[in-house]
Write a structure and sequence with these properties.
It is built from seven helices and seven strands; from the N terminus they run H-H-H-E-E-E-E-H-H-E-H-E-H-E. Strand 2 and strand 3 form a beta hairpin.
Length: about 190
């Protein structure tokens, strides 16, 4: 984001408007997004014990469903249209609501779908990824990669984060400061 875009973001989240993104801005965006979330976040904590208790075994594809991508939601993966989204049945309705709201705000970002359910481990680790549970989604990975700092070089719009936060999903870019493409149905 440009300095002017960061200033606009700072004004929106209610922190000092100076174009510099540091700990105070990061804390402010976290508070701002939490204010958009349900009072009780319906998702589990990120410990493997909590995730398994809520979602089941990550390698069991029984609870993974294929949800038809609605006609209004034109998702693409490497220029190929996506007909359905594979995700955990417990997140399906919430995910579609978040995508609908995010699509209204930023269709060019949301239509760049990079996957939801993927049987894999966390990067650099041995634990299952939230994608293995079917409880995470990546959008617009081309400009919001894992190690890109948000909002400096990653450009995920705050409106997309608001859409996911309103469903209680963790928005990695704002909360972790990187991996802005990633949203997951877990506690913050």
């Amino acid at each position: 984001m440009t300095i002017e875009e960061i200033k606009n973001l700072q004004a929106k989240i209610g922190t000092k408007v100076d174009g510099l993104w540091g700990p105070k801005s990061k804390a402010a965006v976290g508070s701002y997004l939490r204010s958009k979330a349900p009072k009780v976040i319906p998702w589990p904590h990120t410990s493997q014990k909590s995730l398994k208790a809520f979602y089941g075994d990550p390698w069991d594809n029984e609870p993974i469903i294929m949800v038809d991508a609605p006609d209004w939601l034109r998702l693409y993966n490497e220029d190929q249209p996506i007909q359905f989204i594979t995700c955990h049945k417990k997140v399906a309705k919430s995910l579609l609501r978040a995508l609908e709201s995010a699509y209204e705000a930023a269709p060019n970002v949301v239509k760049k779908y990079y996957g939801c359910h993927v049987d894999r481990r966390m990067r650099g680790g041995h634990q299952p990824s939230l994608h293995a549970y079917g409880a995470a989604i990546d959008l617009d990975a081309g400009t919001n990669r894992n190690m890109q700092l948000w909002p400096h070089s990653a450009t995920m719009p705050i409106e997309v984060m608001e859409a996911f936060a309103s469903e209680g999903w963790l928005c990695a870019g704002a909360i972790w400061g990187r991996d802005a493409m990633h949203f997951q149905a877990t506690q913050w």
